[in-house]
């Protein structure tokens, strides 16, 4: 049922060969959307549709839109996600030309958001199941909070325990991509607004909605959210 719901939520993003759809308002065309809820934890899916990086079209992180919307439904989380192939990449280009970052910053300030999760896929050839990007070992993107990182990593490892033993792939932190570029969403938000922000790179071998490993992934993300929300309440 979970995976079917994610597939259904994601269907509108499949239009125009994953370029998505334009959301028109009275004043301007919108290339992304913010869904408002009152939770202090927020999810971002900047590559939900195709995007442009240095003039080249890059294919979308398929199903990150559906995943974000599903988790929003389950936990009443605010989310931001791309809806149309923009002329820039929200996770690469600078704040000055990124309305995605500009409105995300404004929303986080106005709604007092305390934690941001930024969802992405990576190639199935990677030797990890999931990698957490916190900007190397000192973890400034999560504000040097080792306890918070332990909660997130432990939640993932518990969910993927059997899968890890079978595939020999692990949950890693900054082994390949540190999210240190100032223009990544997690780095920008942590640096500018001083709230923890985490970029999660998920191996594409978990993306098949017909296989059990995606059920495990969804449960793992649910456990992360529960752990973070509990931590934010009681810290």
Order of helices and strands: HHEEEEEEHEHEEHHEHEH
Spatial arrangement of strands, main beta sheet = 3-7-4-8-11-9-10
Strand residue percentage: 15-25%
Overall number of domains: 1
By CATH, the architecture is named 3-Layer(aba) Sandwich
Report mean pLDDT, rounded to a whole number: 90
Would you write up a description of this structure?
This protein is α/β, with parallel strands linked by helices and about 240 residues long. The strands form three sheets. It has a seven-stranded mixed beta sheet, with helices on both faces. Helix 1 (about 1-10) packs across helix 3 and helix 5 runs antiparallel to helix 8. It is built from eight helices and eleven strands. The protein is globular. The chain has one domain (about 1-145, about 170-205): Aminopeptidase. The model has no long low-confidence stretch (mean pLDDT about 90).
Question: Could you provide a short overview of the structure?
Answer:
This protein has 235 residues and is an alpha/beta fold. Helix content is 39%, strand content 20%. Helix 4 packs across helix 7, helix 5 (146-159) packs across helix 6 (161-167) and helix 5 runs antiparallel to helix 8 (212-234).
Secondary structure layout plus pairing:
Blueprint: H1 2-10, H2 15-18, E1 23-24, E2 29-30, E3 32-35, E4 41-45, E5 51-53, E6 56-58, H3 64-75, E7 79-82, H4 99-111, E8 115-122, E9 128-133, H5 146-159, H6 161-167, E10 170-173, H7 185-193, E11 197-203, H8 212-234
Helix pairs in contact: 1-3, 4-7, 5-6, 5-8
């Amino acid at each position: 049922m979970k995976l079917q719901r994610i597939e259904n939520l994601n269907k509108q993003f499949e239009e125009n060969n994953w370029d998505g759809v334009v959301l028109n308002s009275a004043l301007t065309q919108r290339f992304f959307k913010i869904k408002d809820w009152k939770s202090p934890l927020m999810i971002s899916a900047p590559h939900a549709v195709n995007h442009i990086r240095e003039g080249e079209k890059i294919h979308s992180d398929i199903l990150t839109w559906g995943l974000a919307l599903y988790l929003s439904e389950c936990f009443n989380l605010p989310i931001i996600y791309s809806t149309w192939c923009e002329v820039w990449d929200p996770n690469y280009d600078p704040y000055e030309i990124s309305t995605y970052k500009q409105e995300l910053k404004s929303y986080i300030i106005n709604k007092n958001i305390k934690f941001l999760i930024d969802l992405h896929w990576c190639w199935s050839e990677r030797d990890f199941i999931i990698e957490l990007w916190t900007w190397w070992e000192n973890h400034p993107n999560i504000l040097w909070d080792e306890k918070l990182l332990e909660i997130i990593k432990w939640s993932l490892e518990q969910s993927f325990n059997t899968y890890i033993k079978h595939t020999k792939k692990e949950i890693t932190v900054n082994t390949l991509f540190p999210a240190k570029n100032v223009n990544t969403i997690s780095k920008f938000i942590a640096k500018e607004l001083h709230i923890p922000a985490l970029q999660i790179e998920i191996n594409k071998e978990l993306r098949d909605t017909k296989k059990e490993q995606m059920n495990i992934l969804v449960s793992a993300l649910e456990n992360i959210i529960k752990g973070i929300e509990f931590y934010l309440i009681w810290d």
